[in-house]
UniProtKB/TrEMBL annotation:
InterPro entries: Bact_2-comp_sensor_kinase, HATPase_C_sf, Sig_transdc_His_kin_internal. The keyword Methyltransferase does not apply. It holds the Pfam family His_kinase. It is an enzyme of class 2 (transferase). GO terms for molecular function: protein histidine kinase activity. The keyword Transferase applies. The chain crosses the membrane at residues 12-28, 40-61, 81-103, 115-137. Keywords: Kinase, Membrane, Transferase, Transmembrane, Transmembrane helix. This is Sensor histidine kinase. Its EC number is 2.7.13.3. Gene3D superfamilies: Histidine kinase-like ATPase, C-terminal domain. Residues 160-239 form the Signal transduction histidine kinase internal region domain.
Amino acid sequence: MKHPILSGKFRLLRFLAIWIAMGLIFYVTMSNLTPANKKFLFVDILGQNMIMAGLMIGLWYPIKFMSWENQKLPMLILNHVLLYAVFASTWVFLIHLVLKLVFPVSEINDYISNAIAYKIPFSFFAYIVFVISVYLLKYYNSYIEKKEIESKLSQSIKEAELTLLRNQMNPHFIFNSLNSISSLTIIDPEKAHDMIIKLSDFLRYTVGYGQLNKVPLQKEMDMCEAYLEIEKIRFGNKISVELQIDPESLEVEVPSMLLQTLFENAIKHGIYNSLKPEVILFKTKIENDRLELIMENTFDSSGKNHAVGTKTGLKNIKERLRLNYKNLAIFETQTIDEKFVVWINIPLNS
């Protein structure tokens, strides 16, 4: 821990200015209460305050290492008594030396004898206040440092959790795409070629932007277009996508890979198990300083063709929203007839 007074020029000047101001106030008070010579009193009070200020700057070093964490209470008290004795005796000696150097000894002896009566209580009070201030500052700095460490640790854990959740989203899509490419190389090499290009575009995005925590919605849409082109090659006319995008929403930052997971969930549970064409509708709008994202997909609810699944993708989305926005994000799902709806509402500035 740096010296709280010497760590900055303005701190030192402020510290000395406080002691000078206290000295002037003390001088005015004492000159009205005592018949002491005003010249003696002025030099005495101003000198003792400046000497005490200098001594207290040095006292910080031993007091810094004297605490009940590393010393037993009796030893701590004894150390403070000894330190105060050294401090008080040095302070009294130096101010008396100054007085004797400024004024003739014959004139100043009586004043020194009378002034010693208030110097000891004053030095004791000043020492106690200074020690308490040092301890309070020490524990305040420790508290701030602890909070900073906790904040950094919490952020590290959050980033690790987000990375884990992101990593859970990509592999099975890539495996499915590679399997589709493998099949297309036999039955339709041209489509396989197109699918490889689209897959490379998608992977380029995940390497460039997918590792970021948040990206503009426009970037997410660009990536999702590459993703949807791949899925259209896989499913052909079975998939129909409608987009209703508010232009203002394209600049809003959202968690990376969020939309891809929404589209992937809609395709997996709406189109993959359906024997007829299904529709995916994605809408965005800004209202009351919040971004609203709506994903709707139709699905075939008839018998064996409809699979409920584990909803891992939706759980990941919900967890990522919690990590990014805490309790400020809203995530809801609803099934209406043969339509599944995901509704997300997040603050713009968070």
